[in-house]
From TrEMBL:
MF GO annotations: ATP binding; ATP hydrolysis activity
Domain ABC transporter: 10-245, 255-498
Protein name: Monosaccharide ABC transporter ATP-binding protein (CUT2 family)
Superkingdom per UniProt: Bacteria
InterPro entries associated with the record: AAA+_ATPase, ABC_carbohydrate_import_ATPase, ABC_transporter-like_ATP-bd, ABC_transporter-like_CS, P-loop_NTPase
Stretches that traverse the bilayer: none
Organism: Labedella gwakjiensis
Amino acid sequence: MSETRTGIAFAARGITKSFGPVRALRGVELELRRGEVTALMGENGAGKSTLLKIITGDYQPDDGVLELDGSPVVFAGPGASRASGVRVIAQEPEIVPHVSVAENIFIGSLGRLGYKRSELLERAAAALDDWGFARVIRPELIGSTLSPAQRQIVEIMRALISEPEVICFDEPTSSLGDDEVAILFAVIRRLRDQGVAIGYVSHRMAEIFQLADRITVLRDGGLVGTEAAADIDDEGLVRMMVGRDLTQFFQREAVTPGEVVLELIGVSNEFVDDISLTVRAGEVVGIAGLVGAGRSELMKTIVGDFPLTAGELRVSGTARRFRSPADSVAAGIGFAPEERKAEALLLQRTVRDNMALAMLRKLSRWIFVRSHAERALAAEYITRMRVRTPSAEQIVGTLSGGNQQKVVLARWLATGPKLLLLDEPTRGVDVGAKSEIYTIIDELARSGVAVLVVSSELPEVIGISDRIYVMAHGHITGEVPSRGASEESILALAMEEEPTFS
Ligand SMILES: Nc1ncnc2c1ncn2[C@@H]1O[C@H](COP(=O)(O)OP(=O)(O)OP(=O)(O)O)[C@@H](O)[C@H]1O
Ligand SMILES: [Mg+2]
């Protein structure tokens, strides 16, 4: 593509789509222009992913048309758009587990390429290098060993090597670290300069304003409007998305903490080294750090997923050693892990079942009383967290990504633990629900729960916690009070090469 063409490369016009009683899209319009990034925004369940699946041919619209270069097109089945140069980077890429990154990247063209392994590896290495990903992924790695970020990169490379005319990303950065995000943004800018038409879904405002030329907003399956990014600010965008003003970013008020609920003394294992920390009743303690710093591993070590090789873990003053997460639940510890789908949800069960799951012990053993209590609980959290679902009896697997996360979180928030561990609690969650989650965490702490929260979003971790431990390379590199903490000071600790103490 030497010369940059302009104009509308792809359009979706009057798109309507229902799933049974759920009207996922109602007469939506989206235009993707050559050499531009069009952001697609809206609350969880607004219909963004559904629209992208219609663009690929995975779903057929009930009404409306797709246009490629101004002419109507029909993409008749899953992935049918690919042949026409229209690619969508899925939220959850499918990776073949037993073969290499190289084979995974060229999976669509293995037949044509003749499948010579050394040649594939070479081609993959060259492509990864060309697009800047060589630093974070190697072509000979095996599919099953890939991190979520690497899986996402494979999915992106698959699209790039096909030289698409139109490319859409569905929350691509939700599984990427800062490093990988920077590479992805460079990729997107390069595609834009080449004249590719780009669609971009994200809940992160900062990204939108860095990348987007135009912003299309959906609400409840309907089109709110499209604005030039230069003509709108954060607040205006939030108002378009949620249809109301949101209160300013959450800032937790100072508290007087109670007894020490969790204490780690020199805890070490394969993943973390010499970790000492405390969390008191009524306190919200943040853990910041870059991807790979060992934050999630630390949480899993606390709940007994990974054994300790040295050090001591105390809960309310008593030395404990959990052999499994079930053990830690029994000790009053709630844990909402990062990979919610894989680790935490029963996708085939209802919203109510999933929310009640962690409470079985607490709810009455009388079936009748229990189902009543479950229903009340589900109703409360569906309302509070604005879970977009037709009812509590909906199968969780059919909810939008962000709404699934709210269900997992509701479950742990409702268990009434004395210690709550939250790993990236607002990842993939829209702005309205985020502020509700902050409020719930704050209320839990006020009621005496000790909360330990991992978050990659610095404004978030500063806003919701009382103190922050910063991790790098499996160590704690520093501890800072949240009041007055700057993003820069935390980043400096997060990027430290070696710990300041041993
Ligand atoms: N296969 C399905 N069966 C039933 N309902 C579905 C299905 N797919 C999507 N929906 C519903 O359609 C609506 C739109 O979902 P969609 O996944 O498009 O939202 P989204 O805007 O991508 O949200 P998020 O930001 O949470 O990813 C939701 O109410 C969802 O529950
Ligand atoms: Mg989605």
